[in-house]
Amino acid sequence: MTRPFVVMAGPLPPAIGGMASVLAALQTSGLAERVDLRLFETGKTTPPGRRLRDGVVIRLRLMRDWWRLFGRRPAPVAHIHTCSGLTFFLDGLLLLISRVRGAPVVLHVHGARFDDFLDDLSVPAAVLAHWLARRASVVVVLSADWQQRIASRWPRAPLMVVANGVTMPASARDVALEGAPRFVFLGSLGARKGVPVLLKAAALAQQPWHVDLAGGDEEPDFGRWVRAEVASLGLADRIGVLGPVVGQAKLELLASAQGFVLPSLAEGLPMALLEAMSMGLPVVVSDVGAMPEVVRDAIDGRVVPANDPIALAAALDRLAQHPEERLRWGASAAERCGSMYGVERMVEAIMGVYARLPGAAA
After folding, report:
1. Residue 214 in 3-state DSSP?
2. pLDDT of 212-228, one tens digit each?
3. 7: helix, coil or strand?
4. How distant is the alpha carbon of residue 183 from its chain centre?
5. Which terminus of the chain is more solvent-facing, meaning fewer CB atoms within 10 Å of its CB: N or C?
6. Sign of the torsion angle spanned by Cα atoms 272, 273, 274, 276
């Protein structure tokens, strides 16, 4: 049987962020054995400070290159990873080109605040966004929670759920139970990820523990603000600020940690959470986005109310005080991730999406 030809658009590694992590996982998965897969870079490729004319030229070349991909027959499947903001409407141009060229389109929606993005649009822009979504053959969302949110805003969009997936490590890591535990926060540094809440929790802590913050600034100079706040509150023994950590260094950071924390105020289905669970880390997360669907409270870790530093401090204190729970919850998290959120499970779900497309034999 001829494998379907799929052109997958999105920010490719080494770009930082959830979409790039999803693309990286799919690159090394079994998807390329099931379909004729071609990846198409849509991430930022021009340097900061570039002239507007340069940006327009780059975007026009991108559209030209995308158009040329669809000259063969039968038309390939266009699988477009997108998120909120101007990116969505620029990706909408790729969607329209694909439909003009006769290709079925999978619009794969990421982003922790995609619902807020839709709610904040002007009436004409909101109508345009819904119209674009209806042009897609399938709109993929990351969880049942997100399916409900998007369905209430795009009632006529053809929605399907595909949870993110990660590559499971080949072997179990060594687990240290002695001494004060070191937890890892992995994500963009900003208010949305709950970093100020984490600093407040650190100031309330009753047990010895330390959190390393790994990630670039989501808001301008936020890392500088965090360092100043850590110094002001006397939290240098509690909080470390590492900056962006990617690739093998990220895996090594997770492998050497005793737990993972992500107290976000808004989320999709964070790849960082799945990567931590795959490593056998007990996790402490807030009850937003898909995280409560993924993490079973008091089984894989703790799920705490968002924006609640008291509850967050108590959860981290408990993990610090009970190393046997860290071990048990970490093992449970790894089993949960492997059975429900492995990359090959994501591949199967994607193949199920392709099987629903007109003219695509998956």
Report:
1. strand
2. 999 999 999 999 999 99
3. strand
4. 20
5. N
6. positive
- With contact defined as beta carbons under 8 Å apart, do 323 and 177 qualify? yes
Provide the 10 A C-beta neighbour count for residue 161.
15
Q: In the chain, what are the domains? A: 5-165+342-355 (3.40.50.2000), 182-340 (3.40.50.2000)
Q: At residue 17, does pLDDT exceed 90? A: no
Distance CA 135, CA 105 (A): 8
Return d(Cα 227, Cα 223) in angstroms, integer: 6
Cα separation of 86 and 89, whole Å?
Answer: 5
From residue 305, alpha-carbon distances to 173, 196, 319 in Å are 30, 15, 17
Cβ atoms of 346 and 26 within 8 Å: the answer is yes
Q: How far apart are CA 319 and CA 75, in angstroms?
A: 53
- Between the CA of residue 149 and those of 39, 76, 152, what are the distances in Å? 29, 30, 5
Q: 239: helix, coil or strand?
A: strand
Coil vs helix vs strand at 178: coil
The pTM assigned to this predicted structure is 0.90
- The Cα–Cα gap between 9 and 39 comes to 6
Query: For residue range 42-77, what is the model confidence (pLDDT) as tens digits?
Result: 975 444 455 656 667 888 899 999 999 987 667 799
Closest CA to 141 of 153, 131, 124: 153
Q: Is the Cβ–Cβ distance between 321 and 303 less than 8 Å?
A: no
Question: Which strand (E) or helix (H) includes residue 106?
Answer: strand 105-109
In the block, tokens 């006529």 appear at 156
In the block, which residue shows the tokens 């940690």? 257
Q: What is the DSSP string of 279-294?
A: TT--EEEES-TTHHHH
Question: Tell me: the pLDDT tens digits for 136-152?
Answer: 999 999 999 999 999 99
Q: How many CA atoms lie within 13 A of 326 on its CB side?
A: 28
Q: Are 162 and 307 in contact (CB under 8 A)?
A: no
